[in-house]
Amino acid sequence: MHTFLARYDSLAAWLASRWPEGLALLLTRVALAGIFWRSGRTKVAEGTLLTIGEQARFLFEYEYTGLPLPPAIAAPMATYAEHLFPILLVVGLFTRLSALALLAMTLVIQVFVYPEAWWQTHIVWVALASVLLSRGGGPLAADALLARARAE
User: Fold this and answer.
1) Helix, strand, coil shares of the chain as percentages rounded to 5?
2) Other CB atoms closer than 10 Å to residue 17's CB: what's the count?
3) Distance between CA 86 and CA 94 in Å, rounded?
4) At 16, is the secondary structure helix, strand, or coil?
5) What's the pTM value of the predicted model, to 2 decimals?
6) What pLDDT was estimated at residue 1?
7) Please, what's the largest Cα pairwise distance for the chain?
8) What are the residue boundaries of the structural domains of the chain, listed by start?
């Protein structure tokens, strides 16, 4: 039993080391970014980069009626945020800020749009964002390069 526990402890230490954790954080960044990027792309008119589509305007006006912002403000804010913060997450630039922004969006969606979606969906988004808030982007993030540059 002692040998098993020693091997388990060694494996746990290795998994918590710089590169395995960095890979896990990269996957976490990509997973959270993908959720919001795909959502953002549904709000854009087909064939355009960032033009708000009529379907998005309709959703914000008639389905997302509980939002505390007018649809003319909420639709572009959500669309642009769902493009900007995922890009920053994938690159690992301003990881904690981006995760915080997407966490705030998740909470707004949870409270004002889909309050029944906590256990099916939003808890996973909150968990991903929370990991990034607490751990940062890891060594495979632009934030790590900036931190090293600032330390020199």
Assistant:
1) 80, 0, 20
2) 10
3) 11
4) coil
5) 0.93
6) 80
7) 64
8) 19-151
